[in-house]
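Subgroup meeting minutes
Present: P.N., E.W., G.H.
Scribe: E.W.

1. P.N. recapped why we're keeping a running log of single-chain structure predictions: easier to compare across weeks, and new members can see raw inputs and outputs side by side.
2. G.H. added today's entry (61 aa).
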Amino acid sequence: MMVAVCGHNGVCDETVSKTVNLNHQATIEHVYDIFIKAYAYGLKNISVYRDGTHLNQPQKL
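Output recorded in log:
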């Protein structure tokens, strides 16, 4: 039965994740609220990116 659920290799990935992109004005409180909401929604992983925090990033169109 596990083969039907997890596939032929037996690896079962039930990860629920989300990426959140924030503008440069986002504060620590905004990030905190995002993590609290992600926990409440049952997310297992979250990535938060804030505009302008990387030396090399995609250009806005």
